[in-house]
Design goal:
Helix content is 35%, strand content 29%. By secondary structure, the chain is α/β, with parallel strands linked by helices. The strands form two sheets. Strands 8-9-10-7-11-12-13-14 form an eight-stranded mixed β-sheet. Strands 3-2-1-4-5-6 form a six-stranded parallel β-sheet, with helices on both faces. A hairpin with a 2-residue loop joins strand 11 and strand 12. Helix 4 packs parallel to helix 5 and helix 5 runs antiparallel to helix 9. It is globular.
């Protein structure tokens, strides 16, 4: 398979992952900056170009991976689909429902597939909870609390932007488990310029979820994610703290009346797993949990939260 990657920022990491995969025979990378193109070419021994038309006109390219600023996703995805390519888009799929729906309609029109990098679905600790719920091992899920807290490492994450650019991963986790909520309430505060704290409350018929995103933690604070899931017959707690020096502290625990159990966490790369899944789905025409329709449900929930915050 031949893959094109648009973007040399986070796109460079995608190139690194594709370069490891047996199903990927060729990679071409589009980027604006000559120095970045040169760096990627020398490091990964791939083709590079600054001419987008070379991507669209190359009939050998089967998948276009879009790692560009969000506002370009609609334009680039539709051009790729029109050119007969499947598409893989970094989150969020778009900044508006109208743009996301336009991509979906183009995929139907040109009979191609669009995948979105909802990578948390391949993180073991989150998959574990998904299967606990699916198999009804602890009864009904009654309350879910999810958090994502970070120092100011990721650009503008004020209360207007934190939903799409940070909290969307946890929102996707919740909507995958529970569906779209019956109602949403939310509160926010801008702590400093481009740094905020937001909490959303998602209400369901027989359960609820809290989703918290904070981008105003001190520099010494870790990038911290986690959840607590309260069931009828037990509780699951997970956390991971990642520090700037590369060290991590993580644990996944199951609590029941009769026992406490620490669940082993295998070493796996969820980004790599997501890309492998996309390639497999294209190769074998399999149903995908990364389908754009899934991403649209998540986007709708985040945008609903943003509307509440504006009021």
């Amino acid at each position: 398979m031949k893959v094109a990657v648009l973007g040399t920022g986070f796109g460079a990491y995608h190139v690194e992952l594709y370069a490891k995969m047996e199903d990927v025979e060729e990679i071409v990378v589009w980027g604006r900056k000559e120095e970045k193109r040169k760096e990627i070419k020398e490091k990964f021994h791939v083709e590079v170009t600054n001419d987008m038309e070379e991507i669209w006109s190359d009939s050998a390219i089967n998948l276009v991976d879009i790692c560009l600023p969000n506002y370009l996703n609609k334009e680039m995805a539709i051009k790729a689909l029109r050119a007969g390519k499947n598409v893989f888009i970094e989150t969020p799929v778009a900044e508006s429902l109208e743009d996301a729906e336009a991509i979906l309609q183009a995929a139907k029109q040109y009979d191609k597939r669009v995948f979105v990098d909802l990578f948390l679905r391949f993180e073991y600790s989150y998959e574990y909870l998904y299967h606990i719920i699916k198999d009804n091992r602890l009864g009904a899920l009654k309350e879910l609390r999810v958090k994502r807290e970070t120092p100011p490492w990721w650009g503008n994450l004020d209360s207007e932007h934190i939903g799409l650019n940070l909290m969307i991963h946890d929102m996707d986790f919740v909507t995958r488990l529970l569906g779209e909520p019956d109602s949403i309430s939310a509160s926010s505060i801008d702590v400093r310029e481009q740094q905020s704290a937001v909490t959303a409350y998602l209400k369901y018929e027989d359960s609820c979820a809290w989703v918290r995103g904070v981008s105003a933690m001190p520099q010494a604070y870790p990038f911290s994610v986690g959840y607590m899931a309260i069931f009828e017959r037990g509780t699951i707690r997970y956390y991971e703290d990642g520090y700037s020096n590369g060290s991590t502290d993580t644990k996944l625990e199951l609590f029941c009346d009769e026992k406490k159990e620490e669940i082993p966490l295998p070493q796996a790369n969820c980004y790599e797993s997501a890309i492998e899944h996309v390639l497999q789905c294209i190769k074998d025409n399999e149903v995908s949990c990364l389908d754009i329709k899934e991403a649209i449900c998540t986007l709708r929930t985040v945008l609903s939260m943003n509307q509440v915050l504006k009021k």
